[in-house]
């Protein structure tokens, strides 16, 4: 039998090793993404089993999971591309959030700042009932004497403006219609999008976490710029690039990327609300503007919690026409669709764009087909106006097996 001290030392060494591995991958670039997902998932298991050791050994030291990383660690860009080039502000693609952690152990929760240990999210606030349409005004009574002058031609109906107001009263027609196809391409390298642009493709839009298309020039594909985060390297070029995009016909603009997640935008709801008002509100009368995109993390203060707090922090001042959501978890269509329902509810019935999603394991083709069937054909999910699988790139967890060759998941997403 091992002594208590021997068991304590063994557990301590195991916890240190797990923490070092997870911390290393948390700061890695997207090239390590598939391994990062697995390690984060495994790390969650280790923390549950040895959390009492962590509380004893690391008392007073920062939690690697809550340490903010440099904003330069984004989603990966090709090795030949500079993310600080003056001609482009494309941000590399962000890593997925960790999968939802297992039930918390009976140990005392850590006192570190959020993100905290997983706790059930508070009940979602029911969406406000959309305001009733006012009754039409009765026509004026015609004059007794028939007028010789022909009746005036009715004035042309003005074009609808995007409904970017923050009154949470719905507005399913506020964001641009997808043009028959909801599917879009998330990419870093525009040259890799070619396989998705053949005859019979089902993509209608694209984005690259940046402000300029960086070589994408495909007929029938709407490019949607994004202000990745309210930091100088992005805001310094935003006004010029947003104006250029709008002048070229852009119909929508994406707000910040995963401010609820430490390695991404990483802003509090109040900070993000103030920045959204400053940088996104000015375009609300010219394009549909999104709320900041969130993860599906169920860590307290992240995911749906963060979105709910952001809407409250806006206090009716943030202009947004739709909400953006991300999802990474084991392959469960019901879980993904349920996440979208909650986002839709928190946003007061406004449309939702699913701008990143992918299962982290299992039969990805079957999962994708099951999800697309619901999003494309089930009237319940008509509020999901656009969605983009993560991502147009080469790798097992992406849509290509080679630069010009789609894998089975890519074929299903692009053409089936």
The strand line-up of the biggest sheet is 3-2-1-8-7-6
Could you state the oligomeric state of the chains shown? Answer: single chain
CATH superfamily of the largest domain: Glycosidases
Helix content: 25-40%
Describe it for me?
The chain has 416 residues and is an alpha/beta fold. It has two domains: 4-66; 183-415, TIM Barrel, CATH 3.20.20.80. It has helices at 4-26, 33-57, 232-247, 269-279, 303-314, 333-346, 364-377, 408-415; strands spanning 183-187, 203-207, 222-223, 252-253, 288-289, 323-329, 352-359, 384-392, 400-402, 405-406. The strands form three sheets. It has a six-stranded parallel sheet with strand order 3-2-1-8-7-6. Strands 4-5 form a two-stranded parallel sheet. Helix 1 runs antiparallel to helix 2 (33-57), helix 4 packs across helix 5 (303-314) and helix 7 (364-377) packs parallel to helix 8. It is globular. 43% of the residues are buried. InterPro entries: ASL1 (IPR053183), Asl1_glyco_hydro_catalytic (IPR024655), GH (IPR017853). Residues 78-91, 105-124, 161-180 have a biased composition (Low complexity). Residues 184-412 form the Asl1-like glycosyl hydrolase catalytic domain. Residues 58-186 are annotated as: Disordered.
């Amino acid at each position: 039998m091992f002594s208590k001290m021997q068991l304590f030392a063994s557990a301590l060494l195991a916890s240190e090793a797990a923490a070092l591995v997870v911390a290393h991958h948390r700061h890695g670039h997207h090239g390590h993404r598939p391994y990062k997902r697995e390690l984060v998932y495994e790390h969650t298991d280790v923390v549950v089993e040895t959390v009492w050791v962590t509380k004893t050994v690391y008392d007073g030291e920062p939690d690697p999971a809550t340490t903010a990383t440099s904003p330069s660690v984004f989603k990966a860009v090709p090795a030949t591309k500079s993310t600080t080039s003056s001609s482009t502000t494309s941000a590399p693609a962000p890593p997925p959030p960790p999968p939802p952690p297992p039930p918390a152990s009976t140990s005392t929760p850590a006192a570190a700042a959020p993100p905290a240990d997983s706790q059930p999210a508070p009940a979602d606030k029911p969406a406000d009932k959309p305001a009733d349409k006012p009754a039409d005004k009765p026509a004026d009574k015609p004059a007794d004497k028939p007028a010789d002058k022909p009746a005036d031609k009715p004035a042309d109906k003005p074009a609808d403006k995007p409904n970017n107001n923050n009154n949470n009263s719905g507005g399913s027609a506020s964001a641009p219609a997808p043009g028959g196809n909801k599917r879009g391409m998330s990419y870093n390298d525009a040259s890799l999008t070619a396989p998705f642009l053949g005859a019979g493709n089902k993509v209608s839009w694209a984005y690259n976490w940046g402000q300029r298309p960086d070589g994408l020039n495909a007929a029938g594909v709407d490019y949607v710029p994004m202000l990745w985060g309210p930091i100088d390297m992005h805001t310094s070029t935003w006004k010029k690039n947003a104006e250029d995009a709008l002048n070229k016909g852009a119909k929508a603009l994406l707000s910040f990327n995963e401010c609820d997640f430490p390695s991404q935008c990483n802003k509090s709801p109040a900070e993000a609300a103030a920045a959204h008002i400053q940088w996104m509100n000015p375009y609300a009368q010219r394009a549909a503007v999104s709320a900041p995109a969130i993860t599906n993390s169920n860590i307290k203060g992240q995911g749906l919690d963060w979105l709910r707090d952001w809407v409250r922090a806006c206090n009716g001042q943030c202009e947004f026409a739709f909400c953006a959501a991300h999802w990474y978890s084991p392959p469960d269509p019901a879980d993904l669709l349920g996440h979208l329902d909650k986002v839709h509810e928190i946003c007061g019935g406004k449309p939702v764009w699913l701008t990143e999603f992918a299962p982290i394991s299992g039969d990805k083709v079957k999962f994708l087909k099951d999800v697309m069937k619901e999003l494309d054909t089930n009237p319940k999910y008509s509020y999901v106006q656009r969605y983009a699988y993560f991502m147009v790139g080469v790798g097992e967890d992406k849509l290509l097996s080679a630069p010009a060759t789609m894998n089975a998941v890519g074929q299903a997403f692009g053409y089936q």
